[in-house]
Amino acid sequence: MLLYFQDQAGAARALANAAGLACHCVDVHRFPDGEVKLRLPHQLSARVTVFRSLHHPNEKLVELLLLARTARTLGAVHLTLVAPYLAYMRQDMAFMPGEAVSQRIIGAFLASLFDAVITVDPHLHRVATLAEAMPMEHAIVLTGAAPLSDLVVKLKDRPLLIGPDEESGQWVALAADRHGLDFAVCRKVRSGDRDVAVALPDVQVSGRAVVIMDDVASTGNTLAAAARLLHSAGAVSIDAAVTHALFDNGAIDTIRSAGVGQIWSTDCIAHATNTVSMAPLIAQALTEMFAN
Amino acid sequence: MLLYFQDQAGAARALANAAGLACHCVDVHRFPDGEVKLRLPHQLSARVTVFRSLHHPNEKLVELLLLARTARTLGAVHLTLVAPYLAYMRQDMAFMPGEAVSQRIIGAFLASLFDAVITVDPHLHRVATLAEAMPMEHAIVLTGAAPLSDLVVKLKDRPLLIGPDEESGQWVALAADRHGLDFAVCRKVRSGDRDVAVALPDVQVSGRAVVIMDDVASTGNTLAAAARLLHSAGAVSIDAAVTHALFDNGAIDTIRSAGVGQIWSTDCIAHATNTVSMAPLIAQALTEMFAN
Lengths: 292, 292
Description:
homodimer, Rossmann fold, 6-stranded parallel beta sheet, 16 strands, 26% strand
């Protein structure tokens, strides 16, 4: 049985179909004072999968607390969280004394509610595995690099993949390796949440169809900065592909005005740019997990 | 040591002054994607009091999770939550099968983070004590009925206190008993979050200075419905006093247009109507708790 929330019905139902699970929408009533009331089906199966992608996470985390504790009283024995986008994975240490290490705290909180988690490209830096941040029986990480790479080779001729910063390096390498594509990675200098500058790598751009690829994009500033440099360097076309379309208001305009043609994303976060469904890979991971 | 958040600096500093505690503002950074980063003073005393009133609670609950877990790593041994307004106290049973009993779930969540809680008029119905909902070493309930009653007798001549519905009965009785005032309680019929009708009790209203009193008001509809009836019944003046000014947008207009003159509230929830500080009573409760 799969439980989902109305605002993520599309991706959740696609997963339920791919995995052959019955699915039910959680009834959420919002009171004027900001509290929520949740209602679940009153009889749950022993194994329950909860679909909740966690961008703008705080309201959703409280809903998951209410949901998971209630599910246990209604017959659920094993609870899996499918969170294609997993929040709070970047703050993995106290950069200044006194800072909350939110990755560990939110990870432990979710581990206290769920027995298993499946996510996509969780943007881990200083921890090697998701299980370190989120100590659970199963902590499964999938990647959007493969299906996005499959899309890109279908649509572009011998594309050159460009990572907009060093952090995207491993991820872009994965996408490139899958089809033996050329790739290179920009260097980034960040001076605030929204201010970034990048430097192009030493690679032949002129005459190439370039696709900027990354696991996540939010302001679009890094992507746009890379696109402007690639345009000046003589790229024939510039498109972009990201796993997590975490785009702020204005991000798409920022990216398009920098000369980016197509923007493709997975459905980990619902967005107008979604072109790749993660449902088949998540369904496969669910099936394999339950087979073990 | 008392920790507070910038948006509640006024009430928190008043409490710190009254209780003789050093106070520090928690540094909260909000990222564009809805995540927050918290930073606490990097050395905490063994006893830490956290001031956080919990209207519009969900963001705040996640911040308290991050704060409490971090505080334990920075030297805090005993954590007290001062939440003048405590959220999620009304859903104390599953009214329909499958509903989350959020009072118990949020109560247990806060009990997993804090050693003690102090709150004001938590609007408990079917549980006798706060400790049932929130199993902690200390779960202390204060009331705004006394200081509001003190205010009302100063400002009005022989006021008649009116509770706008049965739920306010005990609370209005408390306010009335304190100064031997007359009181009575309306009957309420509710047909939705915002639709209410009330019936006046059998009491002489004509010629009286009436004060409608309740522990909480949100839409103001109940208060306004009572005020219109009291006006028709010949009240000389109609004012209102509530502990929790949980007023929605438009609530004050609704209440004023029903003929209510003054609206008084405690500072449990910051609002333009705040006239009574709860700091002295909360400081006293803190002092007594630590003395035990």
